[in-house]
Amino acid sequence: MNSLSRRKFLQISGSTFAAASAIGALGYAAKGSLALAEEKKESGIKKIPTYCNLCFWKCGAIAWLKDGQLWKITGNPLDPLSNGRLCPRGTGGIGTNTDPNRLKAPLIRTKKRGEDAWSVVTWDEALNYIAGKLNKIKSELGPESVALFSHGIGGNFIKHTFLAYGTPHIFAPSYAQCRGPRDVGFELTFGEGIGSPERTDIKNTRCMALIGSHLGENMHNSQVQELSVAVDNGASIIVVDPRFSIVAGKAKYYLPIKPGTDMALLLAWANVIIKEKKYDVEFVELYGLGFEQFAASVAQYTPEWAYTETGIEPQLIIETALELARNKPASFIHPGRHTTWYGDDTQRSRTIALVNALLGNWNHKGAFFKPVKLKVPSYPYPDYPESTRGRADNPGKKYPWAGEDEGLTNGIREATITGKPYPIKAWVTYSTNLINALPNQQETIKAIQNLDLMVAIDILPSEIAGWADVVLPEATYLERFDDLHSSPFTTPFLGIRQPAVKPPEDQKPGWWIAKKLADKLGLGQYFPWKDIEEYLKYRVESAGLSYDELKENGIILGEKLPNYVEEGLEQSFPTPSGKVEFYSPQLEEKGFPPIPVYTKHENPHDGYFRLLFGRTPVHTFSFTQSNPILQEMFEENEVWINADIAKSYNLKSGDYIKLKNQDGVVSNKLKVRATERIRTDCVYMVHGFGHQSKALKTTYNKGANDAQLVTKYKIDPIMGGTGMNVNFVTFIQEGV
């Protein structure tokens, strides 16, 4: 199979399936929200507190039922993350329940991968099949030959099953393909990461710089709410971006930077702040390590030099650097989230951390707060078996700062292809579409073809499910219990997710799948509780809290603790030196530059443009495009092209074109958006569209898939992340 466009996943014929009505590809009677009403004949209005699953923010929410049917979803006013308000995705959450494309019953492939022949089976048959394959792999090759890819809190119990099975290979693509460089860059500097949600105090800031971070399009609920407060309070917003984003419209300064030169600007900002003696001298003297070496190193990066790299006028570089400095410590550069850009991303993120350190803003109001968490005891499980073979995704710790808790998704893919350092023979995915999450789709498919078992646990028939041997349909977040939610934030809190309605067909919650599979694998001792509520009640009451109160209100708040130095918080920096490391002995010891050094990146050739991609406020990654409510708001993506460039190609807004990348890969057709709001050397598109699974009937082939065009990537040598902003595209106009 040479391309995903030739896939026919779940194109089901009557001769193939006796129970075709159970399959998501053949249509859907939207009765899930009516299930309780039919069973219990409920009437009136009922509210059920839960927390959202439309992104990683996990905002506290309330599901409202009217006569037993899902009616609406609102924010929980007790929740410090949502403050009683949800983003467009959250309010459209009902669409996850009524999505006509949903998977309905377990499926087992009956022919080789790439041929779409499936059998509808019972849960017992599906889990027996999986357990038989996993036990065979374990006995012949060891448990390390199995990898789990999981996204979101719903995967906690699946992770538990596979840790009990004995594999160390638990992966979160959000690490190596998104935020890993940012986390490592800040940890190397301050000894602590940024967290999720990020520890940024936007509402109290006097000045914030955003570098390729699109608040307002990246719809992170509490941050967007805080941005509104900051703007109302007159905060200076500095936006650095090749594209005039939504937040750029709120900015005091907009810097249309040349893509790939962000570190040049950051180093020039450091140069100005130090040269003009506008840094926080007391903070640097008390807590800094190696400041003199850092100052000497950045002396070469003048605004005049940076202008030749970035295209930003020297005076504007100076003015924005001083704007940050004059508002310290209530000013900061936002660390961003999707930071895997060019392969030197840890050093770029570390440069962001270092300029913040010059502002003395760590744990200060208006910049970075100290997160606090409500501590809830874990369930007393048996210890997991320990592996002595070492990890296959990062053999020999080639990438010294790769996070082992979340792993290198691309590293395990390489091991699956090569069989080195040892064979990887089974992949299990939970709520993550690796075809669209990883760069170079053909490498992912090649790895899958080397497997003895591929399992997908999902709500929708995504592209990755189309390559699985077994597909397990999960209940949506509105139909299930999940693990407790207690993210570190300004206020310690505990949240609960609980079902508002029953699954409409033969879907099951993740905790049930994990527990039943563990039983089949002979690991029942790792699930001593009889059901999820026994587990949840034990944990809540072990923390001295009321389970009944949590179920009723959805949120329990803990005691307020200091978040800032201004509130009496004492500074501490858990680096090896106990200092803010302007000069990093850790990096030096491993052979990396201890101070960030600017590196040039490849520019597009004539007729090509750098491909940039990002978000829209109403969709999350590639799994909400078929949500009928959200699809109505944003049905397909467009390609942003500079108006002058579009004119030179005789293109206008609304025209359809295709994009071809440097390796000859051609996208679906998509609409042109000719605009002055983007530079001439790049184009931009929203991620997650152009679905190639024909089972996603309502969104199949709508728009184009940026992941299809990301065939090149550069690996960060420090932590192993995949820089993906290194692809270039040109336009195909004929035959579209």
Overview of this protein structure:
The chain has 23 helices and 26 strands. It is α/β, with parallel strands linked by helices. The strands form seven sheets. Strands 5-4-15-14-13-6-7 form a seven-stranded mixed sheet, covered by helices on one side. A six-stranded mixed barrel has the order 19-23-20-22-21-26. Helix 8 (262-275) crosses helix 12 (314-326).
List descriptors:
736 residues; alpha/beta; Dimethylsulfoxide Reductase, domain 2; Barwin-like endoglucanases; 26 strands
Give the overall average pLDDT.
94
Distance between the termini: 24 Å
Here the CATH topology of the domain at 191-371 and 564-589 equals Dimethylsulfoxide Reductase, domain 2
Helix content: 25-40%
Q: Write out the strand line-up for the largest beta sheet, numbering strands in chain order.
A: 5-4-15-14-13-6-7
Low-confidence runs = 1-38
Largest sheet: 7 strands, mixed
Which CATH architecture of the domain at 191-371 and 564-589 is right?
Answer: 3-Layer(aba) Sandwich
What structural category arises from helix and sheet content?
A: alpha/beta
Beta fraction: 15-25%
Count the DSSP helices. 23
Global outline: globular
Radius of gyration: 25 Å
The CATH class assignment of the domain at 191-371 and 564-589 is Alpha Beta
How many β-strands, per DSSP?
A: 26
The CATH H-level superfamily of the domain at 191-371 and 564-589 is: Dimethylsulfoxide Reductase, domain 2
Layout of strands and helices, then pairs:
Layout: H1 35-40, E1 45-51, E2 60-66, E3 69-75, H2 88-91, H3 94-98, E4 107-109, E5 118-120, H4 123-141, E6 146-150, H5 156-165, E7 170-171, H6 173-190, E8 207-211, H7 221-232, E9 236-240, E10 253-255, H8 262-275, H9 281-287, E11 288-289, H10 291-298, H11 303-310, H12 314-326, E12 331-333, H13 345-358, H14 409-418, E13 426-430, H15 434-437, H16 441-448, E14 453-458, E15 470-473, E16 493-495, H17 510-520, H18 532-542, H19 547-553, E17 555-557, E18 580-581, H20 585-589, E19 609-614, H21 628-633, E20 638-642, H22 643-648, E21 656-661, E22 670-675, E23 682-686, H23 706-709, E24 714-715, E25 722-723, E26 728-732
Parallel strand pairs: 6-7, 6-13, 8-9, 8-12, 9-10, 11-18, 13-14, 14-15, 19-23, 20-22
Antiparallel strand pairs: 1-2, 2-3, 4-5, 4-15, 16-17, 19-26, 20-23, 21-22, 21-26, 24-25
Helix pairs in contact: 4-17, 5-17, 6-13, 8-11, 8-12, 8-13, 11-12, 14-16
